Amino acid sequence: MAEPAPIPPEPYLWRFLVDRRHQGRGIGAAAMAELVKQCRRWGHDSLTLTWMPGPGSPEPFYRGLGFEPTEAVKDGEVEARLRF
Ligand SMILES: CC(C)(COP(=O)(O)OP(=O)(O)OC[C@H]1O[C@@H](n2cnc3c(N)ncnc32)[C@H](O)[C@@H]1OP(=O)(O)O)[C@@H](O)C(=O)NCCC(=O)NCCS
Fold first, then answer.
1. Residue 61, number of CB atoms within 10 A of its CB
2. Is 43 near ligand 1, meaning CB less than 6 Å away?
3. Domain definitions of the chain by residue range
4. Quick check: CB of 28 below 6 Å from ligand 1?
5. Would you say the pTM of this structure is higher than 0.85?
6. Which runs of consecutive H residues, i.e. helices, occur in the chain?
7. In 10 A of CB 54, how many CB atoms?
8. Tens digits of per-residue pLDDT, 49-81?
9. How remote is the CA of residue 69 from the centroid of ligand 1, in Å?
10. Which residue CA neighbors atom 39 of ligand 1 most closely?
11. Homologous superfamily of 20-83 in CATH?
């Protein structure tokens, strides 16, 4: 995660992953909750990321947390935003 700079002005998450051996234990959801807290501390009310669509995509995970596609596609990945 990068602290927002003038460009881009919004927190943007990339390369977020949980070790395969520890997936499905709530670690991802707990880490995302901490990231949202950090964004709030920075004074922001949204977080943006992208996911690769298709089989094995983390899309259901992010949708379950409330992320919604922005309709933008970046390098073949779906951009989505969580507002809080
Ligand atoms: C996607 C990822 C970050 C989720 O982390 P995690 O620790 O496994 O997720 P959690 O255990 O906190 O799961 C939270 C919820 O999301 C669901 N979920 C997690 N990964 C999912 C997936 N790939 N597809 C469908 N649902 C998923 C869980 O079933 C759980 O649902 P519940 O709340 O109804 O029980 C992790 O599985 C991962 O790193 N995957 C591979 C790498 C990847 O795709 N990274 C993103 C691209 S950069």
1. 16
2. no
3. 20-83
4. yes
5. yes
6. 27-41, 59-65
7. 8
8. 999 999 999 999 999 999 999 999 999 999 999
9. 17
10. 17
11. Gcn5-related N-acetyltransferase (GNAT) (3.40.630.30)
What whole-number distance in Å separates Cα of residue 26 and Cα of residue 58? 14
Of 35, 41, 43, the closest CA to residue 12 belongs to 35
Cα separations (Å) of 59 from 3, 32, 54? 24, 14, 9
Q: Which amino acid is at 33?
A: A
Residue with tokens 């379950």: 64
Would you say the CB of residue 8 lies under 6 angstroms from ligand 1? no
Task: Choose one of 1, 19, 23 to mutate for the ligand 1 pocket test, by most ligand atoms within 8 angstroms of C-beta.
Answer: 23
The pLDDT of residue 4 is 80
